[in-house]
Amino acid sequence: MKRALVVGINNYPSCPLRGCINDAKEFSETIGSNDDGSPNFDVKYAEDVPNKATLKGLIVDLFSGACDTSLFYFSGHGFINELGGYIVTPDYGKYDEGVSMDEILTLANNSKAQDKIIILDCCHSGAFGSPKITGHNAHISEGVSILTASREDEPSLEIAGHGVFTSLLLDALRGGAADIRGHITPGSIYSYIDQALGAWDQRPVFKTNITRFTSIRKARPSVPLETLRKIVEYFPNPKQEFPLDPSYEDTNTEEVKHEIVEPYAKEENVRVFKNLQKLQSIGLVVPVNADYMYFAAMNSKSCRLTALGYHYWRLVHDKRI
């Protein structure tokens, strides 16, 4: 069971925002299902939460009880002072700006959920996870992952009605940060956003203490898993090469008007070769002594696993895929 609380606040009395509700709605819709339409998070969506008490109650409910994953997303104003960081609510006042980031961290640290994920798109969000009381030393319990839009001393920017951070976050969730199997993790999301933002832009922050693989969303795999699993069939030994010849190339047939060579295309070999080409397209296989797989086949060369190919070969061989 995976549940998420998604909050967007635009309606601040003296400093309204424009893009937070847009971002929260899109995040909620995206995280609710996987790329194939299968259910993902059970989402509770809230916009323009009127006061601190209401928002704190929602957060307490999120981290109460046991579940596989509890995820909290917030888009709105953030604030920091000598006491720590806060996610700001519309009823803010001096020294009562909103819900304390340190209190949210305590709720996440004490939660019985196996994975706790906090994603904040607000100014000064990088203060989350480094309480003032500990001298900014991170205190994150096992199973907690934190992804923030900026460092604690930086703003979080909006452009054209959307937060810069959340725009990249959504791109990552929609497949940009997926691995070959389609899994999208907090770490891969951070890597995607980190590479997209330059040295002079706001800098995202990632803090985590995990001991297991956590997938936030699943996109469509780069190649079908049944094709990926054939890697151990084609390469029984990961160091050996797979010999090719013209019979693997489907255009090497008398039905196609061009020069052909023996042995002519064989249906079974063509099927294997198409799978090898798929594996080559995602960096798991490379032709040997040829620029392209086509020439490796037509000139009776071979192909071999890359270092990444060996990694996935090992996963398949050990029955982890």
Description of the structure:
- With 321 residues, the chain is α/β, with parallel strands linked by helices.
- The protein has 10 helices and 16 strands.
- The strands form 5 sheets. A 6-stranded mixed β-sheet has the order 2-1-3-7-8-12, sandwiched between helices.
- Helix 1 links the parallel strand 1 (2-8) and strand 2.
- The longest helix has 15 residues, at 267-281.
- The two termini are 22 Å apart.
- The relative contact order is 0.10.
In short:
This protein is of the alpha/beta class. It contains ten helices and 16 strands. The strands form five sheets. A six-stranded mixed β-sheet has the order 2-1-3-7-8-12, with helices on both faces. Strands 4-5-6 form a three-stranded antiparallel β-sheet. The chain has a three-stranded antiparallel β-sheet with strand order 14-16-15.
Strand coverage percent: 15-25%
Which strand order do you get reading across the main beta sheet? 2-1-3-7-8-12
Helical segment count: 10
Q: Could you tell me the mean pLDDT?
A: 91
Helix and strand run: EHEHEEEEHEEEEHEHEEHHEHEHEH
Distance between the termini: 22 Å
Q: Identify low-pLDDT runs.
A: none
Computed CA radius of gyration, to the nearest angstrom: 25 Å
- Overall, the morphology is elongated
How many DSSP E strands?
Answer: 16
Largest sheet: 6 strands, mixed
State the secondary-structure class.
alpha/beta
Helix content: 25-40%
